[in-house]
Structure formats: structure tokens, C-alpha cells
Specification:
five-stranded antiparallel beta sheet, alpha+beta, 259 residues, 9 strands
Length: 259
């Protein structure tokens, strides 16, 4: 038989349970002016750097700052006005000014005919910083891959700059194959004048680009071949024999027109 506990003990156990949670939790009272916070847990204090004395009686907006998205704030206000649950992720600020990504869940709760809002908050900064870093990396890759330009009806060219990697070669193959498929291109010139070639640069991927284009009925012409790249290709006779190489785009155009 389960031992019965008093209301006082039950309330204390609930408080201890909330304080041991990894999720910051607070309760607001919309019946009071400006919907103030009336209860919080230790996790929320630790997460934000504020003490309970500094939190109780304030509206949750005190965590907002310069980079807090206004559109998201309006969504929160709308949900509260309509007494609906909502989950959002937004940028908030700790007491010391540190910015953090906050996954905020708000839900209305009615107890003895009185409406309250329970808000749970989780610091998801690590995950969102990783997402931002990946997005920044993707943007940098895109910036290093100049647009494909159509020169004639069936001839196009793309200029590469920077340093080649496996990731950039994958992007190159995807872009070129999509472009050839969409625009019915017979000849693709890849100009590598602006590339920085290192010992580990995967030259064999150029042959892969050529083979993918050939399967789609298009021919690859490698232009802007520098003395350094020419020596690399000469050392790898298998690659040299498979690639059509030219010192300049003009040479490649002249070759195509002479065919």
C-alpha cells in the first residue's frame, strides 16, 4: 500500500523535482498587470544568471535584446492573447549580456478557474551555433564557386577560385550536371586559373567530372592550366591522357569551333 503524503510534502517534492530538472521553468499570472513571473526554478536562475528575487514580478521580456527576433516575439504575444500553446526558438540574453538560443515552450494551464502560463526554457545554443557554422561554411563554398555562364548556345564555362576539396568537387559535379541537363549544353569549360593547388588536391576528381558530363552527352575542357598543374598532370599520365587541357579559355573556344 502506497504511503499517503501531506500537501506540504507534496508541494516541496514538486519544487525539488523542478529544481533538479535540466529545463528552466517559470509560471506567469496573466490576471496581474503585465503578466508577471510568479514562480521559477533553480535551473532558470542558473541558465539566465538572475536570482529569483530579480526574476519574480517581472515580465519575461527582460531576457530580450538587440538580436531577439521581433516577429517571433509577436508570435508569442499572439499565442498568449489567444490562450494557445506555442513553441519557438529565439535569441535571449543572460544577466551578463551573453546571448543564448532559447527553445521556449509556453502552455496555458487553468487551476481552480484561474489561468496561468507555464514556460519551459532550454538553452540550445550549442546546436544552433553548429547550424550557423554549417550555413556559413555552405555560403563560403558557394562564394568560391562562381556562376556557370553560357558562352554560346551549346557552350558554357565556370571559373573556380580558392582551394579545391572533396566537398567542393561534389558541389561542382552537382552544379554542372544539373546545368547540362537543364540547358542542353554540349561543351563545358572549367577554368582553374584562380585555384590554389596543393599536394593533397584530388586531381583525380577532375576525371570524375569529365566522366559524369560524358554520360550526359557533354564534353569537359579544362582551361587555365598553370605550369604547376601541368606538371601534376604530367606526373599522373593516366589523368593527363583522359583530360582535354588548355592554357586559356580562348584556346579551348578555338578548339571547339574547329571541330
Amino acid at each position: 500500500m502506497i504511503k499517503r503524503i501531506t500537501d506540504t510534502v507534496r508541494e516541496q517534492l514538486v519544487v525539488e523535482m523542478l529544481n533538479s530538472s535540466r529545463v528552466g521553468t517559470l509560471i506567469t499570472d496573466p490576471s496581474q498587470e503585465d503578466n508577471p513571473i510568479i514562480q521559477t526554478n533553480k535551473t532558470f536562475e542558473t541558465m539566465t544568471g538572475y536570482t529569483s528575487e530579480e526574476i519574480i514580478g517581472r515580465n519575461c521580456r527582460f531576457l530580450q535584446g538587440e538580436e531577439t527576433d521581433r516577429a517571433t516575439v509577436l508570435k508569442i504575444r499572439k499565442a498568449i492573447a489567444e490562450k494557445k500553446p506555442i513553441t519557438v526558438v529565439l535569441k535571449n540574453y543572460k544577466k551578463d549580456g551573453t546571448l543564448f538560443w532559447n527553445r521556449l515552450n509556453i502552455r496555458p494551464v487553468t487551476i481552480e478557474n484561474e489561468l496561468y502560463f507555464v514556460g519551459s526554457q532550454t538553452d540550445v545554443s550549442v546546436q544552433y551555433r553548429q547550424i550557423e557554422e554549417l550555413q556559413t561554411k555552405d555560403t563560403e563554398i558557394e562564394q568560391l564557386m562562381l556562376p556557370i555562364m553560357k558562352i554560346f548556345d551549346n557552350v558554357a564555362a565556370v571559373s573556380l577560385i580558392g582551394q579545391m576539396s572533396e566537398e567542393r568537387f561534389n558541389l561542382l559535379i552537382t552544379k554542372l550536371s544539373d546545368y547540362v541537363h537543364t540547358n542542353d549544353i554540349d561543351h563545358i569549360m572549367v577554368d582553374v586559373t584562380g585555384l590554389y593547388w596543393q599536394e593533397e588536391t584530388p586531381i583525380y576528381r577532375l576525371v570524375e567530372v569529365k566522366e559524369v558530363l560524358e554520360l550526359m552527352g557533354s564534353q569537359l575542357y579544362l582551361t587555365g592550366v598553370s605550369p604547376i598543374l601541368a606538371r601534376k598532370l604530367a606526373e599522373s599520365k593516366q589523368y593527363n591522357q583522359l583530360l582535354l587541357t588548355f592554357a586559356s579559355i580562348q584556346q579551348a573556344i578555338h578548339y571547339i569551333q574547329s571541330q
